[in-house]
Amino acid sequence: EIETLVLHKRDFKIVMEKISEEIAKNHQVIVVYPLVNESEKIPYLSLSEGASFWQKRFKNVYITSGQ
After folding, report:
1. What average pLDDT does the segment 18-42 reach?
2. Keyword set for this entry (predicted)?
C-alpha cells in the first residue's frame, strides 16, 4: 500500500512521527524534494541541503535524483 502525504512545514512534527511509525513496521519511506540543488529563485529546501538531516536521524538513508 502506498500512501502519499503533502504537508505544510508547520506539520513537520507529524511527518517525523509518521516516518518513525513506518520505519518501526519495517516499511520504506520516500521523501521527495522539489529541487536537487539550492536555488536563489525558488524558496524550497533542496535535496542537497536536506540530505544530511535525514542521514543523521535514520539508518539506511538512500539519496537519489533524476539528474
Report:
1. 85
2. ATP-binding, Helicase, Hydrolase, Nucleotide-binding
